[in-house]
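ok so heres the complex, two chains, lmk if somethin looks off
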Amino acid sequence: MNEKPLQVLVVEDNAGDARLIREMFSKERRDSFELTHLSRMSDAVIHLAKGGVDVVLLDMGLPDEHGLDTVRRSLAAAPDVPVIVLTGLDDEALAAEAMKEGAQDYLIKGQIESRALPRALRHAIERHRLQTEADLIRTHQMQFKDEFLSHVSHELRSPLTAIYQFVTILLDKLAGELNPEQHEYLEIVLRNVKQLQAMIHDLLEVTRVQAGKLSIEVQCASVSDAVVYAVNTLEGTAAAKGITLSSEMECRLPPVCADPTRIRQILIILLDNAIKFTPPNGAVKVQARRIEEDPNLVVLEVSDSGCGISPDMTERIFERLFQTPDPASAGRKGLGLGLYICKELVTRQGGQIWARSAPGQGSVFSVTLPVFSLAGMIAPIFKTERRRESPVALVVTEIGSQTGWLSDAEHSDGIRALLQRCLHSDQDVLLPKMGSAGAAELFFIVATTDGIGGEAITRRIRKRLDGCGDLERAGLTVSTSYRSLEAIKRNARESMEDFLENAAVKIQGVINEEISSRMLENA
Amino acid sequence: MPNKKILIVDDDPDVRHGMQVRLKANHYDTFFAVDALSSMVEARKHEPDLMILDLGLPAGDGFVVMERFKIIPALAVIPIIVVSARDARANKGRAIKAGAKAFLQKPVDTAELLAVIRQALGEPAPAEKPVVYDLGSL
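and the predicted structre for the whole thing:
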C-alpha cells in the first residue's frame, strides 16, 4: 500500500521546538511524511505558493510575523492548505482566535503526545477536504435552485401571455357581444391572470435577490413622485373595496438617494397589502416627511385601519413565504414574498423598514431612505487608491426641455447611453443620473480620472449633441461644462481626498439650490 | 390607403394567433414566422412595415435575428419591437442597443403594444404627445 507521503511544512523559528517536532515524526514510517522546516514567514509563503504542501504546522511567534497574521498570510498564500497552529501554554485564547481566522486545529507546545501529532495532521487534512466539498455542494445547489426557478418563471410567462391575450380579446368584444354574466366571469379570469403575473414577477425578483443580481440604480429621486404614482395605480383597487386612499406629504421634501422604480415598487407592495388587509369602508394613508432625530433621512409611512398584526409577528412578516395564519383572510392571494422583497430593496438602498401594529388596531409600515447627497455618492469612489494619482474632472451636462416630457425614463436612458459613447471604453466614470422632481431638466455628472481630462470630454460631448438635429426638433437644449478640480486644487492645502470631498459638498450645495428653486417654480 | 403590414415572429402559435386577432382589429395586416430562418424568408416575401420579435426562438434567438437583419439593407429598415418573457432589466438595454425600437415584457399590455407600434410606424397617437426623437439615428 504505497500512499504518497504527506508533505508537511513546519514553520518554527525556535530550534529546540523544531527538533522536538522532527523527532515525533521520526517515529512514524519513513515514507508516510515528508517534512520541510522553515523559520521565517516570508520563506514559508514562497514555499506555499509553489504548491504541493498538504498541511502547515505554524508557530504564531515568528521573527517576521506573529499572532493571527501568520494564519492569515498562510491562508492567503495557499487557501487550500489546512493550518495547524502551535501555541505556548498560556496562549489557548489566541489559539481559539486562530481557529476563527481559519486554522483547523491547534497544538500546545510541550504538551504534544508524539503519537498524537501525525493523527492530528491527518484529521486536519481530512476535515478541511470535507469542508471544502460541502461548501462546493452548497454553492452548486443554490445556483441550480436559482437557475431552475428563473427558468420556470420565464416558461410560465408564455402560456400566461396567450391566456391574457384571449381574455382581453373577449372582454373587448372582438369575438362578439357578451352578456353580463360572461363579462363578469371573464373579469374574474383576468384578475387571476394578473395575480399570476404578479406572483411570477415576485418569484423572479426573489431568485435575483438570492443570486445577488437585484439591479438597483441609485440616483437623485423624488419621493413625492413615487407616492403619487403608487396612489394613482391603486386608487381603483381601493375604491372597489370602498376604502379611502389618501396621501400626506411634507412640503419641500428633499430628494432621496434611491432607485425611483424601486421606491414605486416598495410603495405599491405596501399599499397593496394595506388594502388587502383592511375591511371595506376602512382607510389607508401614505405619509412622507423628514424626521427630527435625523435630518439625513426621509420616512415613508403606510398606515391602515385593517385587522392588524400581533406584535410578536411584526418582524416575521418580512420573512420569505410568510403568510399570516389568519382564518379571516378570505380571498387573500399571493406567494408571501412581497414584504421580503420590500425589505431587501429598502436595505439595499441604505434604508430601514419596520412595522408597528396590534390586532384589531391597524398597522403602520415605516420605510426610511437616505436624503440625496452628491458628496456621499462621489466621495467613496474618489477614495480608491488608484484615483488619487490621476487628474480629476467633474463634467456636468445639463439637458433642458421645453415640453416637459424628459422625466420619461426611456429617453433619459438614451441620452445617458449617448454620453457614455463619448467616453473611452476603458475610462473610469461615475455617472450618477439626476432628474429634478417633476421638472423638465435632467443633468448628468460625469466624474472621470484619466489623462485626457474634463475639457476634452466636454468638447466631445458638445460636438456629439450639437450635431444632433433631432434634439432641436424635440425642443431640447443642451449645455455642457466642466470643472477641473486639479486647477482649483492647485492652491489648496488639503489632501486630495479631503479636497475632493469638500468640492463634492460644494457642488452638492449648488445642485440642491437649483433643485429646490425649480421645485418652487413648478409648485 | 392599404393597411400597414406587421411580421410577427414567435414560436408559440397561441401567442401569434392572439396578436393577429388584436392587430387585425386595429387595421394591421399580419404575417407569421417561427424562427430566425423563416423570419428572413417572410420579411423578404412580404416587406413588412414593422416586425414584432420574440427573443426566445428555437435555433437562434431574437438577437441573432436582429444581427442578420442589420446587415441586409432591405431588412435593416424594418423597425423592430422586441417582445419577450425574459427579464426586462437584463435584456432591455441589450435589445435597444441591437436596434430594437422598444422592449415589451410578456404578457404584453395591449394598450402599450398598440402605442409602441404606432410610435414605431410614425403614426400620430390618439392622445396628445410631443414628437419623440429617434434614438437610433444619434
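quick notes: Chain A touches chain B at residues 154-155, 157-166, 168-169, 172, 174-175, 193, 197, 204, 215, 403, 405, 411, 413-414, 417-418, 464, 468, 470-471, 473-476 (CB under 8 Å). thats all i got rn
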